[in-house]
Design brief:
It is built from 3 helices and 11 strands; from the N terminus they run αβββββαβββαβββ. The protein has helices spanning about 25-35, 110-125, 170-175, and strands at about 45-50, 55-65, 70-80, 85-90, 105-110, 130-135, 140-150, 155-160, 180, 185, 195-200. A 5-stranded antiparallel beta sheet has the order 1-2-3-4-5, covered by helices on one side. Strands 8-7-6-11 form a 4-stranded antiparallel beta sheet, with no helix packed on it. It has a two-stranded antiparallel sheet with strand order 9-10. Helix 1 runs parallel beside helix 2. Mean pLDDT is about 95; it is low at about 1-5.
Length: about 200
């Protein structure tokens, strides 16, 4: 079990000042911080700012495997006027996906109402159990996959051909377990040798 530690939720990105936000945005951010202060969930990095195009107020939480300094997923909301939309975010530009994922949320209302809905959404995601599946060969981990344990939804995966069993990579490619520029998918590896609890 990962211990719960003090965590200052949703502090403002130092690049911005309060003058960069309007009254409703500041009210939302303050109410969100107030809601989050009572959470008893494992630590996660969070901040408030704006996305790359400055189109909205942005509140972000980054889930990670802190022991390995591995970023797993950024989740967040964009506040525009009296509406908020949340989902997984692009990990550099912090844009929302074109098509909502299974994690998405939408709400309209006052800044306080939106902060309450947003806080409940974030807290639910922070409580989701995250595990790491590991596959070993000759005593070394050659593949791993992080996922939400309750839904099986994958977050991050890796595969090291040089550590994998001989011929396995080619067999996985021939079986169609590959995407993009030759990225081998762990979906073809069968049961992992080890499941490690990361969160929850």
């Amino acid at each position: 079990m990962i211990p719960v530690v003090e965590n200052p939720w949703f502090e403002m990105d130092p690049f911005y000042t309060e003058g960069d936000f309007d009254k409703a945005e500041l009210a939302f951010a303050a109410a969100l911080r107030e809601q989050a202060a009572s959470w008893d969930v494992p630590h996660a990095y969070s901040w408030v700012g704006r996305p790359e195009d400055d189109s909205s107020l942005l509140a972000v939480i980054g889930l990670s495997d802190e022991g390995r300094r591995m970023s797993l997923i950024d989740i967040g909301v964009h506040l525009v006027g009296s509406s908020v939309r949340g989902d997984s975010l692009h990990n550099q530009l912090y844009f929302l996906p074109d098509q909502p994922t299974s994690l998405s949320m939408n709400a309209t209302g006052s800044p306080q109402e939106l902060a309450q809905r947003t806080a409940a959404w974030f807290e639910n995601l922070l409580r989701k159990p995250v595990v790491r599946h590991e596959w070993e060969h000759r005593g070394q981990v050659y593949a791993s996959r992080y996922l939400f344990a309750d839904t099986g939804e994958g977050l991050v995966q890796s595969y090291n051909r040089s550590l994998a069993p001989s011929g396995q990579a080619q067999a996985l490619i021939l079986a169609g377990h590959v995407r993009g520029q030759g990225w081998i998918q762990t979906s073809g590896l069968g049961r992992p040798h080890r499941i490690v609890s990361i969160r929850g």
